[in-house]
From TrEMBL:
Species per Swiss-Prot/TrEMBL record: Ceratosolen solmsi marchali
Disulfide bonds: 42-54, 49-67, 135-147, 142-160
Transmembrane segments: none
GO molecular function: serine-type endopeptidase activity
Protein's cellular compartments: Secreted
GO biological process: proteolysis
Keywords: Disulfide bond, Glycoprotein, Secreted, Signal, Sushi
Protein's recorded name: Prolow-density lipoprotein receptor-related protein 1-like
Record's GO cellular component terms: extracellular region
Length: 581
């Protein structure tokens, strides 16, 4: 697939490093087997599971088995750690244990002032406890007094909870020109990072990054609520909250496609809580994918840590792609109108604003919740605010839609970098329409899949039959009032060149392929941008392999000639890699 599409789908934001504790990524769990993990050396701020995996200290004994072997929730380990309020008085800490001030928890003495909070109330890392402690010879002293191994200093990870082991002056780091490190904040203060939702304090961000500060509870902000990175400095000065007793919280988790259940694990407010507000320390979020979504990455359980960050990357879900709930009927000239039971859930209909009306002009294919793939010539030199995309639409009349039709405004348009319209013979005729708001995924609105691996490259599937949907010109030389479907057979380049008129052959390039019947059945004007769909071999998954681009005109006219093959733009990694060479 072209670089533009890959970058948009995967995201360009720089992400900070997260620990992925004892999290199974392989279906067969082989990535968390004892054979692989038993000799793995866990970082000092983590807990080692019996089989060798590592989890963050703060999520030990929180009621959820993060180690796949369950060691982090073993009864002999967690009885005292999980006590609440007066129950904690039943337990007396041993001589080699530290008693947390407010909860009565007992933690190993060697965990006190080690750079990471183990006490639920964070009293094991208080400055007034740690500042009078001395560090061993091979240890680095954090600014607040804690001690971490000298080897952990300047390792691009915060081992001191105040990040002082990664201080730029200490480490001799030189920031990129104009860049800044995300700042620590005073208790009770938190901020959102523009274009970098998963960044943590200490992460390097580019110049002009925007921070939006807020305070918790009844406290008020002192200073400007907005700061920008300018010349490697945050300007204006970073604000604070008037109440110094406030505690840090974790930001609201944005996980489209996932259902969230939030639970406060400690204190007088313990129990289920709303997920629509910043989370207090120790809050646990359980996530699972909605219907019509599948797991993409991340963890289904995350915990709010004492530095105001989440213990793991949260679960993200992507719409299930390429699934139809009915069989395929075999625009659209000499095509067929799909029956009510035959859905084309990824087809998008494009309308443009002209003379006070919204008029149908092209088709497209939904490939994610927020992106429609279409032809570059459809939107060449077009403003996003003059386009609307309709999903689950069967009519070319903008005002004659069913109640389930979804209408989406366009935030921006991304053309393929090599597309030059007629000056480039319409090569790389691809564009992306990015919605302002995501589509609502349901049985009638689902994205088509893309063959990212190019395993089933369209050029290797000569003779196979795919289908296209659209509302273009029909055999009556008028736009169709309803969605229609047509099938088309993939044709070899040699056969296509011999069939096409000489002045049309210049449009056959390595970014295109031919399909059709050359017998009066074809796509036509208005069908541009629609997707050419093929079924993945031996599955019920449908993938978009081409975009309707060009077809020869009839002599002396502007309408297509259905007795010739149609040229489609390839949707494939290999073909678009060639265009960048």
């Amino acid at each position: 697939m072209n670089k533009l599409l890959i970058e948009i789908l995967t995201g360009l934001n720089k992400r900070s490093q997260y620990l992925a504790p004892s999290f199974v990524d392989c279906v067969d769990q082989s990535d968390e087997s004892i054979e692989i993990c038993q000799n793995y050396v866990c970082p000092n701020h983590t807990f080692k599971c019996s089989y060798g995996g590592c989890i963050h200290d703060e999520i030990v004994c929180d009621g959820i088995k993060d180690c796949i072997d369950g060691k982090d929730e073993a009864k002999d380990l967690c009885t005292a750690l999980n006590c609440k309020n007066d129950d904690c008085r039943k337990y007396t800490c041993k001589n080699d244990e530290f008693s947390c001030e407010n909860t009565g928890q007992c933690i190993p003495m060697n965990k006190v002032c080690d750079g990471t909070h183990q006490c639920q109330d964070a009293t094991d890392e208080k400055s007034d406890i740690c500042k009078n402690r001395s560090c061993s010879k091979d240890y680095f002293r954090c600014a607040y007094g804690g001690c971490v191994p000298s080897s952990s200093q300047c390792n691009l990870r915060a081992d001191c909870y105040d990040w002082s082991d990664e201080d730029d002056d200490t480490c001799g780091n030189s920031l990129p020109e104009g860049a800044c490190n995300l700042p620590l904040v005073e208790p009770g203060t938190w901020y959102n990072v523009g274009n970098c939702e998963r960044c943590r304090p200490g992460s390097t961000v580019p110049e002009l990054t925007r921070l939006e500060f807020n305070c918790y509870g009844n406290t008020s902000i002192e200073g400007a609520s907005i700061a920008y990175c300018q010349g490697s400095r945050w300007l204006p000065s970073l604000p604070t909250c008037l109440s110094a007793s406030s505690t840090k919280k974790c930001p609201i988790v944005n996980s489209p496609g996932a259902i969230q259940y939030c639970e406060i694990k400690q204190g007088v407010k313990a129990g289920l809580t709303s997920c629509n507000h910043p989370a207090s320390i120790g809050t646990r979020i359980s996530l699972k994918c909605h219907h019509f979504y599948e797991r993409e990455r991340g963890s289904s359980h995350i915990t709010c840590l004492h530095d105001g960050t989440w213990s793991q990357i949260p679960l993200s879900c992507r719409p299930t792609c390429g699934i139809r709930t009915s069989a395929l009927a075999t625009m659209i000239i000499r095509g067929w109108k799909p029956s009510p039971k035959e859905d084309i859930p990824w087809h998008a209909t494009l309308f443009s604003y002209e003379n006070g009306l919204w008029n149908f002009f092209c088709g497209g294919t939904l490939i994610t919740e927020k992106i429609v793939l279409t032809a570059g010539h459809c939107i060449w030199k077009t403003s996003p605010d003059t386009i609307k995309v309709l999903l689950d639409s069967n009519s070319s009349n903008f005002t004659n839609q069913n109640k389930e039709t979804q209408i989406r405004d366009i935030d921006r348009i991304e053309l393929h970098g090599s597309y030059q319209d007629y000056e480039g013979n319409y090569g790389s005729d691809l564009a992306l329409l990015i919605f302002k708001n995501p589509a609502l995924i349901n049985p009638r609105v689902l994205p088509a899949c893309i063959d990212w691996s190019s395993r089933y490259d369209v050029t290797q599937r000569i003779g196979e039959v795919g289908f296209i949907a659209g509302m273009g010109v029909t055999e009556n030389d008028t736009f169709s009032s309803n969605l229609r479907i047509v099938s088309a057979q993939i044709i070899s380049e040699d056969v296509c060149r011999k069939k096409e008129m000489p002045d049309f052959r210049k449009y056959l390039t390595y970014t295109s392929f031919c399909a059709g019947w050359a017998n009066g059945t074809a796509v036509c004007n208005g069908d541009s941008g629609g997707g050419f769909l093929l079924q993945r071999p031996n599955t019920n998954i449908w993938e978009v392999h081409g975009i309707v681009s060009l077809s020869p005109r009839r002599l002396g006219g502007f309408l297509c000639d259905p007795n010739y093959y149609t040229v489609f733009t390839k949707i494939g990694k290999r073909s678009n890699e060639k265009s960048r060479r």
